[in-house]
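=== RUN LOG ===
request id: a7f3
mode: sequence -> structure
chains: 1
length: 331
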Amino acid sequence: MSENLLEVRDLRKYFPLSAGLFSRRRGEVRAVDGVSFDLAEGETLGLVGESGCGKSTLGRAILRLIEPTAGKVTFQGEDVLSLDRRALRAKRRQMQIIFQDPYASLNPRMQVGDIVGEALTIHGIASGSERRERIVELLRIVGLAPEAYGRYAHEFSGGQRQRIGIARALAVIPKLIIADEPVSALDVSIQAQILNLLLDLQERFELTYLFISHDLRVVKNVSDRVAVMYLGKIVELAGRDALYKVPLHPYTQALLSAIPLPDPRRKKRRIILQGDVPSPINPPPGCAFHTRCAYAEARCREESPGLREILPGHFASCHFAPDVGRENAAS
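=== RESULT ===
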C-alpha cells in the first residue's frame, strides 16, 4: 500500500444552537464527533451512512469549506487546519470536491468555459488561448463536445452537468477528490456512466478519492475500503470485500440487508431497526446505536465502545463485534 496522502485525527464539527432575544447558546449539533482515518495515495475510501449522519459535513470540514471545531487534518504531511488563507488557497489546488447537486453547484450566469476555467485563473495556471485549449481538452476528457465551452449550465442534462463539475475539479490536476454523493441525483443509467468515468479518471490521473454515498451498491463498485458512519462517528472500517462479506457492526448489518437483490426469487433476511434515531443535539450516553440495536445490554447504555481492530484491517465500534460477526457469518 502507498503512503498516506490524507490523515484525519479526532475531527469534530459542532454547530451551535441559539435561541431567545439575545441569541444565547442553547446547545450544539454534533455533526462530526471524533472521526479518525487514513487515506493512502491512489486509494478510494467509500464513506456510507444514513442521511444526516455527518458524511457531507466531514468532507467539507476536511477541505475547510466549513471550519472544524477540533481535530487534525494532515494532507501530504502538512497540517491543513493550521494554514492561513493564502497557504490554504495554494493547498486547495491539490484537494478538490465534486458536489452532490449538479443543478445547484454550477453558476447559472457563467458559461461552462468560465466555470471550468475559473480555477485556472485563480491559481495562475493558464491564460488566453492556452487557457481555452486546456478547458476544451478537459471537456473532451469528461465526454463533452468543445461547443459546450460557450453554453450555460441550464442547457445541459443532469449527467452532463455533473461532467462539467468533474471537469472543474480536474482543472488544477489535484491529488485528492472528495466526491460528495456525485451520482445520487442522477438516473440509474446515467449513474453507471459517471461512475465509469470517475474510475477511468482515477487511473489516468492517479487520483485518490473519498467517495461519499448512502448507496452501498455504488460504494461496493468503486471502493477499496469502506467506512460506515452513524451519528457523527465511524462505527466500522474495513476492506470492501471483508465488510460486505462479514460486517461486524449491527448497523452495518442492517444497511447491507436493505440492499435489494437483482433476482426476486432469492430470499434475504431483512433487518428492521427498531426505535427512534437519536438526535445529534442530545446523543444518548454509551453507544449511540444502543437505542436501535438488538444486541444492546446494560454495558452499551453506559460505556461508549471505541473503534478497535477486531480482525486484521477490520475495525468496529461495538462491544460485541466478534459475536455479531460470527452470527452473521453463520447466517
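=== NOTES ===
The longest strand covers residues 24-40.
Residues 246-331 form one domain.
=== END ===
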